[in-house]
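Researcher: Next sequence.
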Amino acid sequence: MQRYLAQRLLLLLPVLLVISMLVFGLMHLIPGDPAQVLLGFESTDPEQLARVRRDLGLDRPVPVQYLRWMGRLLRGDLGTSVRTGRPIADLVGEALPYTLELAAYGLGLAVALALPLGVAAGTTRSRLADAAMQTFTLLGLSLPAFWVGAVLILTFSVHLRWFPVLAYPPLWRDPLGNLWGFFLPALTLAVPNAAAIARMVRASLVGVRGEEYVTVARAKGLGEVAVVRRHMLPNALIPVVTLIGIVAGYLVGGSIVVEQVFAIPGLGRLGLLAIVQRDYPVLQAVVLLVTGLFVLINLAVDLAYVLLDPRIRYG
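Model: Next structure:
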């Protein structure tokens, strides 16, 4: 296991290097001038613009700018926002906990919804359970997140007043209030992903339902619950773990719409604001961080995959 982990970590280095090059290069392809943004679009003094570009290092060749940026990154310096003048590390540090909590909460709800539905549809041979699961997955995958979020706010926060409106107290200060406030945004994120995971669980269970080892387990007199828990689920969950890892990465980077609908000051909202304000250093840092998190989540999924199926580490 240690050797496999070391190999995977070594492979991450070139991946992260390529990602940093792509992020830096793509940001320079976006139209707009950070110096003009910093001075304001009403400023047309060429000497002033040239001085700001020189101060920001934008007058250097792109490879030199990339090496300077990488040097700062390796020292833990993400740079400074050209719009607010604040260190980007501070902006990211304030936004990241909201996004991570929302993603973890949404993933937990998605798995909690998907597993019972998928297991019921994949093991009971009940047409009613199968039809209910198919209806849920169809609706969950079809309904747009902004519409689901708006309906949840209007129904449960405005009319029924069961949940607070756009209130997210820190977890360490008010744990119950925090979980209660984040429930509707997390549910909005969870619904489409629960639908995808439930469909995968059902398909995997149907695939292993007719295997010989399942038939033998039943012939030995094991109850259906024990057959499912001991023999079907461990094999059926291997592809599901891969999907959960992809979903986790999506939840970290794809929560922009939900954060905007529920006014959550997370990474997605920070990145969206950076796009509107042409604050390229902030956008660059957000994209790099989200991409890096996605890569690390996939590494964790690969390790979980090895734990579930030890044959992989010897492959």
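Model: The mean pLDDT is 82. The two ends are 12 Å apart (CA to CA).
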